[in-house]
Structures are given as C-alpha cells and as structure tokens.
Amino acid sequence: xxxxxxxxxxxxxxxxxxxxxxxxxxxxxxxxxxxxxxxxxxxxxxxxxxxxxxxxxxxxxxxxxxxxxxxxxxxxxxxxxxxxxxxxxxxxxxxxxxxxxxxxxxxxxxxxxxxxxxxxxxxxxxxxxxxxxxxxxxxxxxxxxxxxxxxxxxxxxxxxxxxxxxxxxxxxxxxxxxxxxxxxxxxxxxxxxxxxxxxxxxxxxxxxxxxxxx
Length: 214
Description:
By secondary structure, this protein is an alpha+beta fold. Helix content is 41%, strand content 27%.
C-alpha cells in the first residue's frame, strides 16, 4: 500500500480582518497525496487571530484517518489565519500521527514576540509554541530546488521526516500536499472575499460557501 501524506494550509483573508473587533473566519484545507498523486481534499474553517486552528486541524486529520493510512501530516509553520496557533505536539497526542512542520522562511522571533505582547492577552502561550517549534527545527537543503528550509518533527525521527519532505519537494519548495492545500485554500479564500465585497457586508464563511454551491 502506497504511503499517504496530509498537508494542511489556510486561505487568504483581507488584512482588515485583523483590525476588526468582529471574529472573521477563513478556510483551512487538508490535501491528501498518496504515492505522489493527489487523491482527496478536506475543508474546515479557522478564526482570524483566534485560537481554534489546532481544533480545526484535528477535525481534518480525524476525517482523513478514517479513509487513508496517513504516514505524516505536514504543516506550513504553526501560525495560521494570522496568529492563530496550530500546536503540533497536541495534534500528535490527539491523533498519534507524526507531524512535520515546514518553515520556508526565517522567523524574527523578537519581532513576533513584540507583536504578540501588544495584541494578545494569551501571548505567552502563542509565543511558546512558535518559539519551541522554530528553535527545535533544523536545516534541510532541498536537492532539486536548490534551497534551504527548516523542518521540525514530532512522533517521527527528524531524519525520516527530512526524507519525506525531500521526496515531496522534487519540483517546488512546498511539499506537494502543502502546495495543493495552499492553492485550494488561497483560491477559496479569495472567492469568499469577493462575495463579501460584492454584497457589502460580512457573513460566515460557511454561509458563503453554501451559496457558492447553489
């Protein structure tokens, strides 16, 4: 049986969402790749700058595990929908499925900490997840790109995690499951945003998606 991998990424949202007192949401997409072939897609929702990204990711993973033998879940960093936090350790404990976190760019931890302290009363928790995950990540040179990214893993040896990432990055910097999740999530997010602007008011992402399917 071919190994399957699940990549989870978030959708586009307007920067004004972050400055609003209203809790807006965007899409969270999970894409499954088996033997380098895209096979399935899952969609959920996360609050911009909220704290529900771990829960939403868990729902996607649980649905995927019901149908596929997932060897590992790939995450695009640990900040989704602004500063909503995905906790890879918690996800591993809940699902017993290995987590691989990809950092494509260097993080300015001091800048992140200052921003969190300024805007979030629970900044200590949010920063602790970001700092620990990033500081424990290690460099991986992608042979076919070529470029260097950082990789963190839980529930799987880091060398094995890097082998998986290397295998899934044979064309782009993004591992294939994450690339699909990113493209779908970004497209859905922009469609939702367009609907918001056309109507001149904001509604839940779920309501807009229901309308789009009519």
